[in-house]
## 1
Amino acid sequence: MTESDVVISCRNVWKVFGDRPERLRLTPATTLEALRATNHIAAVRDVSLDIRRGEMLVVMGLSGSGKSTLVRCLARLLDITSGEVMVEGQDIGKLSETELIELRRKKMGMVFQSFGLLPHRTALENVAFPLEMRGQDRASRIARARDMLTLVGLKGREGYFPRELSGGQQQRVGIARSLAVEPDIWFLDEPFSALDPLIRREMQDEFLRLKGMLAKTIVFITHDFDEALRLADRIAIMKDGAVEQIDTPERIVMAPATPYVAKFTEAIDRTRVVRALALAQPVAGPVPEGGALPAGETLHALARRIVGDSRPMIPLMDQGRIAGILDRKAALDLLLGPAA
Amino acid sequence: MMAATLAKPGFFLDQRRVAQAILLAALVLVLFRGVLPAGLIRLPEGMVLPFADWINAAFAFAQNDLGLMTLTRAFSDAVEVCLDVTANLLYGKSRWPNVGPIPWVVIAATAGMAGYALGGLRLAVLAAGTFVWIAVMGQWKWAMETLSVIVVAVPFSVVFGLLMGVLAWRYRMAERILNPILNIAQSLPHFAYMIPVVVFIGVGPKAGAIVTIIFSVPPMIRMSLLGLRAVSPEIIESGKMSGTTRWQLMTRVRLPAARTEILIGVNQVIMQSLAMVVLASFIGMPGLGQKLLQLLQALKIGLSVEIGITIVLLAIVLDRMSKAWALKQPEHVEGATWVQRHRLLAVWLGLIALGFLLAWLNPYFIEVERKQALSLADPLDAVVGGLIDLIDPVADWLRWFLITWVLIPLRDAFLWLPTSAVLVALAGAAWRIGGLRSALVCLAFILPIALSGWWDRAMITLYTVFVSVALALVIGVPLGLLGAANEARARRFLLVCDTAQTFPSFIYLIPVIMLFGVNDVAVVAAVMVFATVPIVRYTIEGLRNIPPEIVESAQMSGASGRQLLWHVKLPLALPTLVVGANQSIMFALFMVIIAAFIGTQDLGQEMQRALSSTDVGKGLVLGLAVAFMGLTADHLLMKWARGREATAGR
Ligand SMILES: Nc1ncnc2c1ncn2[C@@H]1O[C@H](COP(=O)(O)OP(=O)(O)OP(=O)(O)O)[C@@H](O)[C@H]1O
Ligand SMILES: [Mg+2]
């Protein structure tokens, strides 16, 4: 990873709401209680993270933990109280109004938790709105908006007003609106929360496809672990405004940095996250006889073969080489729970 | 000041104790009136400040030295050009573009279609029917003279109001300056606006239009500010993320998203304009108002009832249509062809064509001549005459009784009170409700009235308002109780109240003059009727909004119907009722001033004199005196109601 790969980078970002937050002196040691005593609420506390090009970072945390606020700070919808946010090497706190508008027109897109549709515009006009702001001509933006609505399954509803659409349909209009511009940097705040499981999966696939094809950088907020595991390159867990841990899904479950993260991830089915390689022991001595298992697959995917295999030690194959040895008992313990 | 000497620090702790002491002092002043020095009974002449002269000097300076005259001239010329256009279109005044008048059938059809588009068949019938009525009753020209001003004034007010609303929304400073100005402006009686306009513009339709514009701006400012504040932050953020510039964000996101509030503002502008345009007859504005004024002065009851019906119908139509527009939510339209998608427009065009054809065939459909017009005046006069003969003995006795035994003694009592006692009592009451701050605020409002030298006139106004609002409470609260009996009835009562509130205040004078003639009783009756409406309304609202659990739990503890009413419902509804009383007082103040032309001796009468002698200073001082009385009542009652609601934890 080189420096230029980092698209968004934030350092010690604080966002404090309250009477006079600009007068506060914020250090990593500042506690919530100290702030509350002066009538302030810290929604984001001392967050530092880097997001690479083409990466999907999933932000998780309890309700009120500051996820939406963090994303708003990254998009400079909110001015941060202290720290700095760099987007493609520029400090966005220092951008002028026109530069910021340019950045949003050309680079950024967002899907809002409560949709943020313009009530006086039809679904079609809502989707075309960012294109209109970019100065695209009428015919082409209408055509593009139509395509996007079809993509999200709203063909035939183009002329409906937000009020006339169901929650899930409104959410899809919001998704279509941000798909229409295909921004390089995407902020998705619980974008699929109101969708039924089928459409949700379709939409996830669509974003994965775009991300894979066009190297989009995506910050994705969700409460749904399955969704997070499907999409995430890395997961950030937030608590009371601070990022407790930011890491790959596997390390989050296998090596939680704090007791909170451990508790938060307790209910996850580990076998769907943990790849065989993570349990591998180094090759010492002779490699066991017989076929090897692919090291990059999750235990869940390999479950049938592990159960069916009778060797106590199973070789793992990665890119044509033996990458390690899997202890079958350890794997079975994870899959079935430790033997009583 | 007595209050200040009594208020030792320790006393601050007990608001009630201080208030009692001050009120006691007021009582002492009243009881020992006989031995009080003259200076405490009325302010000595030497202390009266010539506010009017100062204001006149300021106006003269603005007019001559600041060149404000040129500015107002330019503005009024622009208004005049617009007025000429609408006058030509609506009633064929020979001005550019010289195509009018538009035949009444076309206007009626247009109104009907607009009604249909906004609110369905019923509104269509109401709108078209109103214009048909106006035409066949031979009132077309007057009504169009009135409407031609409204059509010009409303857009001006809306644009001004919107601009100032945006300004107040954008800059805290602007809001801080505007807020008190709006408070005063919205409690200034109509006439106070007319006098400066007469000075700057003169009399006639132009002045009428301009005073209408100025008068109807404040609610627009308020509503646009409210609307802009209420736009959900995510809508704005989504606009920002779409890359809007500030201008785009305002025009394509914020303002459209605040549509409902802004259109409610437009509704208020229209209703205020109608009320003002009718009154502007006092400054030579032709139209329905002027006709009504002449007929009332000549005591031609039948004809004035006809005009009254027209004004009421217009008020209802304008109110219903603009409200329907405000509340109408956008709806998608299906259809492939233009005609399918614009069905109503197509029907409208057809109707217009038909209307022009009719007008071409027969001039009756352009304008109904006076001699072709129907009139209800004779039968109406007969009915009213019979009615009056019937009730005259009673009405006569009532009039005599009220004047001799209620009104005159009360008025004398108000005038008898020493100024000092009134001020001290006010301070005491204010202290009881809101502490030192309230006492100071109220004195700041009322002391200038004493200093202005209009104290006696103000006391007469106060007495009229007091009597009328007291009567309004006596009548309105039981009516409200009756109305709140069940949900269906409550809704019907509220509809009647809503409708009655849209009528221009002038209308209320017709029935009372009809019944009582021109005297103090008529004034009190008109004010009382006008002031009863908000009381009924808020009584119903107050009772309706009591949480059902509370009523149920009281019933479970075995409260009888009467106990329930007195110990549970009324106390809970009281704060809302007080808000109603507050509005009632405002209404009464406005009405007292308007009723002045029946012949009163209060501030309103003086204001009429100031109007006819175009004395700006005097007019404004009188207007402000009325406004300050209203604002004092508003401060005290609202403070009390809020405090009460806070303690009730609602
Ligand atoms: N404009 C604001 N003013 C004051 N406090 C705010 C504001 N916006 C957010 N907060 C506070 O900041 C904290 C974080 O809010 P945020 O919306 O970021 O939570 P979230 O993690 O997105 O929650 P959810 O999952 O419910 O969407 C909350 O305690 C909230 O009350
Ligand atoms: Mg959120």
## 2
Amino acid sequence: MPAHKLLGMALRYLLLIWIAMIFIFPIVFMVISSLKPDLQLLSDSSSLRAFLPVGDISPTNYLSAFDRAPILLFIFNSVLITGITIVFSLFLCSLAAFSFVFLSWRGQGVIFAIILATFIVPFETIAVPLLLIVNNLPWIGLEGIKNSWINSYHVQIIPFIADALTIFLFVQYFRDLPKDLIEASRIDGATWFQVYRRVIMPLSGPIIATAAILKFLMMYNNQLLWPIMVVQEESYRPVMLGLQYFFQLNTQWGEIMAYLTIITIPVLIFYLLLQKAFIASIASTGIKG
Amino acid sequence: MGQVILKSVQKKFGDLEVIPNLSLIIPKGSFTVLVGPSGCGKSTILRLIAGLEDATGGEIIIDDIDVTHLEPSKRKIAMVFQSYALYPHMTVAENIGFGLTLAKVSKKDIQKRVSEVAKILQLEKLLQRKPKQLSGGQRQRVAIGRAITRNPKVFLFDEPLSNLDASLRGQMRVELTELHAQIKATMVYVTHDQVEAMTMADQIVVLNQGVIEQVGTPMDLYDFPDSLFVARFIGSPKMNIMEGEIAEKYFCQKLGVRPEHMEISKEEGLLNGSIRHIEKLGADTLVYSEIKGYDTITARVVGNLEMKIGDTIHLRFDKKHVHRFSNGNRLNTQF
Ligand SMILES: Nc1ncnc2c1ncn2[C@@H]1O[C@H](COP(=O)(O)OP(=O)(O)OP(=O)(O)O)[C@@H](O)[C@H]1O
Ligand SMILES: [Mg+2]
């Protein structure tokens, strides 16, 4: 390999390592700190020792974190809410994208533009009007009819199912699929829904995985403002609300780090699973790359 | 089985008029080839018959049924795409049987039909493969297999062989012709390739900007082109077209002579010049000559030729082989 290429590669690796460190250091800091008592944690934090498992290392913080909050319940709630939202979101947003790309109907362009425009509306601006709406919406559930959505799982799910980003991702991906495939399946006698289910979706593995990961991060990490507004009962709270428990009375930084470490685990599991699915689906369909 | 009639069919894309007004009968069981320059509307016509595009006007009739407003799947047609359009996530067997699966045919019957079709196209050993594990020629066969499965009345082919290399194309040409003889369905075939058009067609339709220039058997079109456009389009190398003095001698504006009717003469005659380029094809030799007063004239000579570039050459032709044109149209009057 010529010298300048070698140098180029070395530089590229340095850059990648540097970027990786930026992402990894906070996580290392979090995990290491969760193992230390508060006093040592605070004194270590001004030096490199913050990233090293030195001194008084013990799982005490984890034990007391479990005492302070019903962590497993919160994780269950978050995973449930996030999971259901993702499933419905992938289904409905991909259907919407399908109709924008493959069907033609009046007003298509305008509606797509409006959906894209919602990109720039931050959730905070619609939170209060949305609260007023869900507060008065009736719901028929297992416990009979209720006249408000407050204090439930569905109030944390339904408003987040459809979103512009997911629709947009699917639209972009669908536009790149060969049009011949759709025409061939129309001639083979497929209905539009069969085209969607039997041809388009099986070829959309990579974008399904991408959209699912993004949606997971959007949901799991951001369950804060909205749950505070609509969930008063502990039994429906997601993990991010659980964090509040550790700031009440005496703030224990070690316990906070322990809590954060625990709630990061589902994210990692989800990410690794989808990454595998992502690579597998690209390899098996061979439609891209 | 499978007569297709187009009655005053029109197609516009917005303001762009692609097919102004086209009427055509595609006889049942025929192998009809559509040819014409790029962008003349060949694919559009095929897609109109398939129902992938809606006609702006006119009627499309397949076997006495007006299909103008029917769904593609209800028209009893099948289409083979240039890109093959195989479903990448399905095996060969699933690709071939997809139409039957959608029609809720029983698993056993699908399997039976798929293996029949696989046998016709020699795909038996490949049934469990995915499309990306196949060669171009094999993919082509699967695409044809998918078309055959549902016993369509009409097959539509849009440049199906253009992605294959020359020798495979030759082989597929023979296979398709044999297939046509075997299943006797109507085939409508779009191509750019002269040889495909000449060798496979019962009927050739020459198109120019959405308008039919001429319909006929390959030899009709070759021997009696109705217009200058057809004369230039059919035949390779192209017919020599000459204007001026020589055309006036034959009482026309343009005089056409096919390269194989040009002979090399020993004495000076009407066409004299020098050789610019020689192509030795083995069985024949093509001689391109710079003729005084005319453009390059091509002559096709049987066998080899003992001449070289730059040599002086005299060409002549028999008057029974000339094609005479005025205002772009053929003159059939005596002279
Ligand atoms: N969906 C469409 N929208 C607008 N114009 C179109 C569309 N499809 C085709 N055209 C136009 O219609 C004309 C005919 O196209 P068509 O594809 O039928 O040509 P073709 O004869 O098949 O050409 P080629 O030999 O290059 O495949 C072209 O000018 C093309 O630009
Ligand atoms: Mg075309």
